[in-house]
Write a structure and sequence with these properties.
heterodimer; A: 470 residues; mainly alpha; 3-stranded antiparallel sheet; two-stranded antiparallel ribbon; 15 helices; B: 481 residues; alpha+beta; Double Stranded RNA Binding Domain; 4 domains; 9-stranded antiparallel sheet; 5-stranded antiparallel sheet; 11 helices; 20 strands; 35% helix
Chain lengths: 470, 481
């Protein structure tokens, strides 16, 4: 068996990664325990500590799953799924603690929804691994949980009492269904990705897609936040721990000089591999693909630098705004959208590198392509009814709260678009026999729309509206 | 090329899944555009002007992109989509009905060849093998029946036949939802009303899609008997409530205390709690009364519609209340609704029944000084009545929406979690004088699950007729069966 052969080849590095990840986790947890004991921030089993533990464990699991992807060592998977299970337990404790403190299920803001989403995604990963024997799925879903938990650390997490409109059982039904269906969509996305790898998708094609994703992320950021060379960020009152508002619903944007140019440079550097790929396709010149591959390294490095500079400049320094007098500070928590975009771009780059380094072995580790194709379809058969009921429960709640079941607000409209995309997938698959590659692309498109509905509508569209002219 | 062929062409185009998918994509793209470009009824004109230049805005308006979701062409798109749904369903219905009502019960040779799953087992006794198959299939939840054609006997068995209708149920549910939505768009309305505590009103303000306002009179009056707000410790609102009574034809016909998320429904009209505030009409006004003859000043609180009695028996009432006044040609006029600079006309009635009218102009001395009266009054304080902000909506089409939702839930469950499995069995000659038990089957979806089921059935049949190599046990089994 090929797996056994690989294991025999690299027994030493296998143990090394396990030990390293184990030590890393032990160290991180120790640091956390010391910090918790020092700061008296609540009981040791409290939400913040448990979430931190979940983050550490999920990160370890993600590393091991990806390590399995690169080396093909079976042992990593059992360790990774143990870590996932432990992380899931800590995550459950965090949810339970928040639930008991708030006296209601954690569904009312972005932080709480992410908490529930991560919980569901970890659960589904464990289920997919056991029930469908898709071991490698964690190498895609666990990084998503890690990015989500990091994002949660930056979002306002204080337990807020519910305003009257949110006091509804239907809202809770609505959000539960949303989390379940979105997590199922995430799993179908991971399976579709694996299908494409199994289906011998060319590395350069994956590279072109990764580059396109990065271009979309940076174009989105620059389109809403580029101000003649500067990058607009939300001003943050560090003492009051609130965003600075000009008027109700209109936060103050301050400008970090020159950062806009850097991000434009990153956008261009991500565009280079894509252009080279297209040129290589047109001219049928594969030497261009090699240059494109080097270009990918450059853009990933630039993005890491971009993240470091972004964090450094956000943390230190006061910036001005044309909309108000004086200098203002900002903070990472006030700019979750920008941060998520930058980190998302880097994670996509890492996934690409993973594929680049390990191609043949990876295919042998994964279930056969037709199994992946079928399981993707089955997961979407679970996600779609949940999505439908989620929209219906939301409409029913809106009708109870505002007297209108459908008012075409952006979130509603994008939920409907998500529904249409998956409806399209099901029709193409059932009536026109779309299987395999085309169906996988459709599933990936579906998840992209889900992500946009979840984050983009909240962070991107308002930004687009409020300051398009500014 | 007559009308008929044009109609056929249109029908064929609209009855294809390809057209349906195309329409889904077009609707999806325009919906997405509608979330990126600011939309008219919800965005304030100032925000629109802030976001777009005058020229851009003019073009967006001209192209109908500032109110996509209420534009006639978007409605036409949705109607086309509905038509497509209907035609697609009508086109495919006869086939589904045939499978449901007139299933192929007997497997002829060409039909047998067309089935994806088949198995042949050598048996000795044809009739016994059929009985055996019947009992095995019953064990798997099928209801086998004997069918005879041209003297040959076979078995037909099926499960979850209704599953062929799932897709029609889902399409029908979408039509229900669209119909409900269109009905609401035509005959439904939605508006808001502010009712001050203790008062009644029946006129709601409707906002049309162009941002204009119009009034509509409800068939009843809404009286607010009380309203209140509870807040959390941090000051954010916890609960808004209003005690409402509906008055129709001068009679109180219904009462309810509503809160957010719990509307008042009366004759298809729904009343929602949407906001809470202070009205510009005071509940009571408090005055300082200084006797003209030099006695000690007295404080008196007068209800807006009522009177208060002063120490010497004269009674004080409020004749006019102007929240924000100006004076022109010696007359008091109202400038705005905001109680910024009020003017009050007082009526001071002596024990003898003689009434003096006195004016207090707040920004002009706030006193009745200089007007002849036994007292000099000054406005000191006011208590305000609350008003409740209500949203009133009439959506007769929502019945269609919720019916559609329930139908769709059933439809999707049937579509994804049931499948129509069909099995046939027959006794064939193996060409060497022996008998073969032939079993074949097919399903309408989820082939791998059916395949697994078929394998189980095959194993069960083999187990029972594994006796083929051992005739004695086989005979025993068959006689039992």
């Amino acid at each position: 068996m090929s797996d056994a052969r690989v294991e025999q080849q690299q027994p030493a590095s296998g143990a090394a990664l396990l030990v390293l990840v184990g030590l890393g986790i032990a160290f991180a947890l120790l640091v956390a325990l010391l910090a918790a004991a020092k700061a008296h921030t609540g009981p040791i089993y409290g939400e913040a500590n448990m979430l931190y533990a979940a983050l550490v464990l999920y990160t370890g699991a993600a590393t091991l799953y990806m390590g399995y992807g690169v080396t093909g060592i079976e042992r990593y998977v059992s360790a990774a799924s143990l870590l996932t299970a432990l992380g899931f337990a800590a995550n459950t404790a965090a949810v339970a603690h928040r639930w008991s403190v708030a006296g209601r299920p954690p569904f009312s803001n972005m932080y709480e929804m992410l908490l529930s989403f991560v919980w569901t995604l970890a659960l589904l990963t464990l289920i997919a691994e056991r029930a469908y024997k898709v071991k490698i799925i964690g190498s895609i879903t666990m990084p998503i949980t890690v990015v989500s938990v990091i994002l949660m650390q930056l979002l306002p997490s204080d337990v807020r009492p519910l305003v009257p409109a949110l006091q509804s059982t239907w809202l809770q039904v609505h959000v539960t269904l949303a989390m379940l269906s979105y997590a199922a969509c995430a799993v179908s996305f991971a399976l579709a990705m694996m299908f494409l790898i199994q289906d011998n998708m060319k590395t350069e094609a994956f590279q072109a897609i990764t580059a396109t994703g990065m271009i979309c992320v940076y174009a989105g950021m620059l389109f809403t936040r580029f101000r003649s060379g500067s990058l607009a960020v939300t001003a943050y009152d560090l003492e009051g721990k609130t965003e600075v508002m000009i008027s109700r619903g209109h936060p103050l944007f301050i400008q970090i000089p020159d950062l806009g140019w850097l991000y434009l440079l990153i956008l261009l550097s991500a565009a280079v591999p894509l252009v080279l790929y297209i040129a290589g396709q047109v001219k049928k010149d594969s030497s261009l693909f090699d240059i494109a591959s080097k270009g990918m390294f450059v853009t990933i490095l630039l993005q890491v630098a971009g993240l470091a500079i972004f964090v450094a400049r956000v943390k230190n320094g006061l910036y001005s705004s044309p909309e108000a007098d004086g200098q203002f500070a900002t903070s990472l928590p006030a700019n979750p959208f920008l941060l998520a975009g930058i980190v998302g771009g880097i994670v996509a780059g890492l996934l690409y590198l993973l594929l680049l380094w390990r191609r043949e072995g990876l295919q042998k580790m994964m279930p056969p392509a037709d199994v992946l194709d079928r399981v993707t379809y089955k997961i979407i058969c679970i996600a779609f009814p949940l999505l439908t009921l989620m929209i219906a429960a939301g409409a029913y709640w809106a009708n109870q709260a505002w007297g209108s079941y459908w008012s075409w607000d952006p979130k509603e409209t994008w939920a409907a678009i998500t529904w249409l995309v998956y409806a399209g997938y099901l029709h193409m698959r059932i009536t026109r026999g779309w299987k395999g590659r085309r169906a996988a692309w459709f599933a990936i498109l579906g998840f992209a729309v889900v992500i946009f509905t979840f984050f983009g509508v909240t962070y991107l569209l308002p930004g687009l509206h409020a300051y398009a002219a500014g | 090329m007559g009308l008929k062929s044009i109609w056929t062409k249109i029908y064929q185009t609209l009855a294809s899944v390809r057209t349906g998918i195309f329409l889904i994509i077009v609707v999806g793209i325009f919906s997405a555009v509608g979330t990126v470009i600011l939309q008219r009824p919800t965005s304030e004109p100032e925000d629109m002007a802030h976001a777009y230049s005058v020229e851009t805005l003019m073009w967006l308006d001209r192209l109908g992109l500032t109110d996509i979701f209420h534009a006639w062409w978007f409605l036409v798109l949705l109607c086309l989509f509905c038509t497509c749904l209907i035609f697609v369903s009508v086109d495919r219905w006869p086939n589904a009905w045939k499978v449901y009502a007139h299933p192929v019960r007997f497997a002829t040779a060409p039909f047998r060849a067309s089935l994806p799953q088949t198995v042949k087992l050598a048996v000795k006794d044809g009739a016994g093998a059929l009985s055996l198959t019947e009992s095995v299939l019953s064990g798997f939840g099928f209801k086998p029946e004997r069918v005879t054609e041209n003297g040959d006997t076979g078995i037909f068995a099926e499960r979850q036949r209704f599953s062929v209708f799932a897709v029609y149920l889902v399409h029908l549910s979408l039509l229900c939802i669209f119909t409900g939505y269109i009905v609401d768009g035509i005959v439904g309305y939605r508006g808001n009303i502010r009712v001050p505590e203790g008062q009644a009103s029946g006129q709601i303000t409707l906002r049309d899609n162009r941002g204009g306002e119009s009034k509509k009179t409800l068939p009843f009056l809404i009286r607010c008997d009380g309203a209140g707000e509870e807040t959390y410790a941090d000051g954010s609102p916890k609960k808004w409530w209003s005690k409402l009574a509906l008055i129709e034809g001068g009679k109180e016909v219904a009462t309810k205390t509503i809160v957010v998320n719990d509307p008042f429904v009366y004759n298809g009209i729904r009343i929602y709690q949407s906001s809470m505030g202070q009205s510009s009409t005071p509940k009571t006004l408090t005055f300082e009364a200084i006797p003209a003859n030099g006695g000690s000043p007295e404080t008196v609180e007068v209800p807006l519609s009522g009177k208060a009695v002063l120490a010497d028996g004269e009674s004080l009432s409020i004749l006019r209340w102007v929240p924000d006044y100006y004076v022109q040609d010696n007359e008091v006029y109202q400038k705005s609704e905001d109680p910024e600079n009020p003017a009050v006309q007082l009526g001071l009635t002596s024990a003898g029944g003689e009434t003096r009218k006195l004016w207090i102009l707040y920004s002009q001395g706030n006193s009745t000084k200089g007007q002849q009266a036994p007292y000099q009054f000054a406005l000191k304080h006011a208590t305000w009545s609350k008003f409740t902000g209500l949203e009133v909506s009439h959506q007769p089409g929502q019945f269609g929406i919720w019916t559609g939702v329930v139908l769709m839930a059933f439809g999707l469950v049937i579509a994804f979690y049931t499948q129509h499995m069909r099995l046939w069995a027959a006794i064939l000659d193996d060409g060497k004088g022996g008998k073969l038990l032939w079993v074949g089957g097919t399903t309408n979806k989820n082939r791998d699950r059916f395949q697994a089921k078929f394998e189980q059935i095959k194993t069960a049949l083999q187990k029972s007729s594994g006796a083929a190599t051992n005739p004695k046990t086989e005979e025993n089994t068959l006689t039992k069966a």
